[in-house]
Amino acid sequence: MYGCETWSLTLREERRLRVCENSVLRRIFGNKRDEIRREWRKLHNEELNGLYCSPNIVWMIKSRKIRWAEHVACMGERIRVYRVLVGEPEGKRHHGRPRRRWENNIKMHLQEVGCGGMDWIYSYRWRALVNALMNLSGSIKCGELLE
Q1: Is pTM beyond 0.90 here?
Q2: How are beta strands 32-34 and 39-41 bridged, if at all?
Q3: 133 within a domain of the structure (yes/no)
Q4: Secondary structure, 3-state, the chain
């Protein structure tokens, strides 16, 4: 996960990461003995989630992105990192739909939590927002932050 803060993941890549993580967890925890049928079977995803209490890899990547977005927002427009991650690409566009940019991913993560309408770069409650998004239980919603 080194450098995952700057990745721009598609839904297909997120699904592949989850599949890979589940296959590793199945190898770690092994098979389960079904007492009724008296045979061995693979663990289901829900059983894996119950055994492994940590959040899945996709959520960890999203939370790291949000934390990095806080640093980028505090840097200001003078710093190159800010200009690279938030800036518009120059030159001619290719045919078809444009690729998803890093800033678009941050906005999508905010929409998942219910904060889609806010301007994340200029938010004066950025620290409270980041803490709420890092909260893995998901009990805090964006509407509570803005009040």
Answers
A1: no
A2: antiparallel
A3: yes
A4: CCCHHHCCCCHHHHHHHHHHHHHHHHHHHCCEEECCCCEEECCCHHHHHHHCCCCCHHHHHHHHHHHHHHHHHHHCCCCHHHHHHHCCCCCCCCCCCCCCCHHHHHHHHHHHHCCCCCCCCCCCCHHHHHHHHHCCCCCCCHHHHHC
Interatomic CA distance for residues 135 and 123, integer angstroms: 19
Residue 61's domain comprises 57-147
Residues 36, 62 within the same domain: no
The answer to whether residue 137 scores a pLDDT higher than 50 is: no
Q: Give residue-wise pLDDT tens across range 67-84.
A: 888 787 777 777 888 777
Do 24 and 91 have their domain in common? no
